[in-house]
């Protein structure tokens, strides 16, 4: 008798994949706290040709671990000298790479994803600069979606801010501020036990006008206190336009030993 794993059967039935990240390109918006992404060809076709006429090209890539669409490892943020679980950051980072909570420990994720579309909740394409997304916003967005994230899920917050991605000055919002999660929203997510959460901005959390990344209380609540991974620079417009609030979330971070984050290509999978 033939039998098939239910997951294989679901895939065989047809799956549509929706991109949740931006392409990586030289000059893309980058937080001032991190080295930017650079890519150039170091060998072009014709620079070296094999006897049979074949040729190959390749590139060199230089980037920080928190540039473009990426996920934060638990080593990324400390508070009062401690990482998640009370690990002393000074001890863990000796030797130039983390021996605890390094990016090689970032899990692959095949989880239920929930889109909390706060921009749509407020009837706007993009939330105002510097807007703080509150627990009440998430409650209302979940009610609007007809579902809310639970234990082990991935919660994605849409502010609409990625619509500015082509304009680095507007997207980074150094003078205007950038919308994002306020501490009450982070606690709302932590109370529900999500595995990871992400947003369509450079810092995930609310950045008031002119404040820059001076303090990041939401990173402390999620990474240090709760062990919840953070995804930044997401592209959520296609997901929102499709009217999808619940989906299969797929993520496979690079296993960068001792790193603090990893570039990623997140996907939403839904039945075709």
Automatic annotation (TrEMBL):
Q: What is this protein called?
A: Kynurenine formamidase
What Pfam families does its record include?
Cyclase
Kindly give the Gene3D superfamilies that the UniProt entry links to this protein.
Putative cyclase (3.50.30.50)
Tell me a Gene Ontology molecular-function term this record carries. Answer: arylformamidase activity
The record, for PANTHER family, names:
CYCLASE (PTHR34861:SF10), PTHR34861
Name the domain of life.
Answer: Bacteria
User: The organism's lineage?
Assistant: Bacteria, Bacillati, Actinomycetota, Actinomycetes, Streptosporangiales
Q: Which InterPro entries match?
A: KFase/CYL, KFase_sf
Tell me the GO BP annotations in alphabetical order.
L-tryptophan catabolic process to kynurenine
């Amino acid at each position: 008798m033939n039998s098939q794993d239910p997951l294989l059967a679901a895939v065989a039935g047809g799956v549509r994949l929706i991109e949740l990240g931006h392409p990586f390109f030289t000059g893309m918006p980058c937080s001032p706290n991190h080295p930017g992404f650079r890519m150039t060809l170091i060998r072009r076709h014709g620079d070296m040709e094999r006897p049979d006429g074949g040729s190959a090209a390749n590139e060199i890539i230089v980037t920080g671990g928190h540039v473009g669409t990426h996920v934060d490892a638990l080593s990324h943020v400390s508070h009062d000298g401690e990482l998640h679980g009370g690990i002393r950051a000074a001890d863990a980072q000796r030797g130039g790479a983390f021996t605890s909570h390094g990016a090689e420990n970032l899990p692959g994720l095949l989880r239920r994803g929930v889109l909390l579309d706060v921009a749509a909740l407020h009837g706007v394409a993009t939330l105002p600069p510097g807007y703080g997304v509150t627990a009440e916003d998430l409650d209302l967005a979940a009610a609007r979606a007809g579902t809310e994230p639970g234990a082990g899920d991935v919660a994605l917050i849409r502010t609409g801010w990625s619509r500015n991605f082509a304009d680095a000055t507007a997207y980074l919002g150094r003078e205007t501020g950038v919308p994002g999660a306020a501490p009450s929203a982070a606690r709302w997510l932590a109370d529900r036990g999500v595995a990871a959460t992400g947003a369509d901005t450079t810092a995930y959390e609310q950045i008031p006008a002119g404040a820059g990344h001076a303090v990041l209380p939401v990173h402390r609540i999620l990474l240090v206190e709760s062990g919840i991974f953070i995804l930044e620079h997401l592209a959520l417009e296609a997901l929102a336009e499709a009217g999808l609030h619940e989906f299969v979330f797929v993520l496979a971070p690079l296993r960068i030993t001792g790193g603090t984050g990893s570039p990623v290509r997140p996907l939403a999978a839904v039945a075709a």
